[in-house]
Write a structure and sequence with these properties.
The protein is mainly α. It contains four helices and no strands. Helix 2 runs antiparallel to helix 3. The two termini are 15 Å apart.
Length: 153
């Protein structure tokens, strides 16, 4: 059982890294359009964000499959499902916002660019704080499992 939980934690970490890559590309895209306007580079970033979001979805589906396959307790499975579902909204929004900006040919007013850049920085900080909270939670679960193994031995 502990090996299965470890594999699940590793898959969750893979998912977190994919979400992080999506957010990083989103931030790069927005910064680029604030500095340079909409151009081919931004369009490339929008496609890259979409591809990374698809990767997040694939990993999420694999993670969900693993949870059923490993017969986790329903409460544990529900908690992880809820967590992943909430996290999954982040790459989805990155994809939606970047595509909407491109599709609608949104040009930002010069007087708003500084505030928008600051918002993008704050978004990144909040996102990384969220990731750290999830990782802390998973590490606590791993430490609990290690303690249980010691008791069992």
């Amino acid at each position: 059982m502990f090996k299965k939980q470890r594999m699940l934690i590793e898959k969750l970490e893979e998912y977190l890294k994919a979400c992080e890559a999506t957010m990083t590309t989103f931030q790069e895209a927005i910064r680029h359009t604030l500095e340079n306007g909409l151009d081919e580079h931004y369009e490339t970033k929008v496609e890259e964000i979409s591809n990374k979001e698809s990767t997040c979805d694939e990993i999420r589906r694999s993670l969900e499959h693993m949870m059923y396959q490993y017969s986790l307790l329903p409460e544990t499975r529900e908690d992880i499902f809820f967590l992943v579902e909430q996290l999954d909204s982040i790459p989805n929004h990155c994809e939606d916002v970047s595509a909407t900006i491109f599709d609608q040919r949104t040009e930002f007013l010069p007087e708003l660019k500084g505030d928008l850049s600051e918002m993008i920085d704050l978004l990144g900080k909040a996102f990384h704080a969220c990731l750290e909270a999830v990782r802390d939670c998973m590490n606590q679960m791993e430490r609990l499992n290690e303690s249980l193994r010691e008791v069992d031995n």
